[in-house]
Amino acid sequence: MNQYGGHIFLMGAFALAGTSVVAGRLVTTTLGTFTIAAASLFFALLGLLPVCGRTLAITFRRMSKGDWLRLMMQALFGIFLFRMFLLQGLLRTSAGEAGILTGTTPAVTVVLARLLLKEPIDKLRFCGLVSTVTGILLIQGLFSSTLRFSGEHFIGNVLVLCAAVCESFFNVISRMGTIKASLRQAAELNPIDQTTLVVLIALLLCLGPALYERPAAALQTLGITGWLALIWYGLFVTALAFILWYAGINRCDASLAAAFSGMMPFTALLLSILILQEEPGWQQWLGGFMIVSGMILTGLNPANSKQTCNHLQAN
After folding, report:
1. Which of 48, 54, 97, 207 has the most other CB atoms within 10 Å of its CB?
2. CA dihedral sign, ordered 120, 257, 42, 40
3. Residues contacting residue 183 through CB under 8 Å, at least 6 positions apart
């Protein structure tokens, strides 16, 4: 029952994360990359701090150096670098394609989980990797003699793929922290407190680059739609999604958790059609189908968590 609860948490987390593509697209033409990230993180903190109350101070005092290092790495890969690559990519490619390409996260996570956590790659997961790579090639138009992207469009897709890699690192680092806590029989960090600290660290990382973009003038010209997009990005895409993510990763292994990231491309593609009026071509649809298929295959027969724990204990 605990694992099924984890499934629900992860599905909700990635469904909300998928809306980041559309929310980001609504403001990328007006605001700088780091201004968007910093503003959304500020709104996230406004929503999180009142909920934490005194528990944040208690969590702060009992955290080890290893806990702090993992939170810093999660903030770096899961928020700072992820948003930098995604938002820069959205300046050059469509929201629909960006959403689909984020579906490569499960395949990348399977490889990283194998290298760092020693989670096995069975036949189904290998087929999932092949399906994912094929989907990427289809979206990039490498199998077509008629579909050709501009260099800028191609770079945009590559940047989104870099964001997916950062998300995969975040997945594995988060799972590693949960396993380490289990091995030393320590209480797991409260998901809300953990989210608050990661958001705070990420905000500190974004502030310097954001100030360099001189955001004051751009923020003054932002319309109601842009402000609503930033608030949504902060309260739901960041605060609520990360709380659900941490609650889910405490119950599932890294590869299974990554499989639910297929909700990101599904949500992003659907919203890009409904809200942004984009019209993906048949290659984008087929590539998206291959990537989602790869997501499903990599999520089947999840690795034995005990084996992963034994590996980390040995190290």
Report:
1. 97
2. positive
3. 309, 312, 313
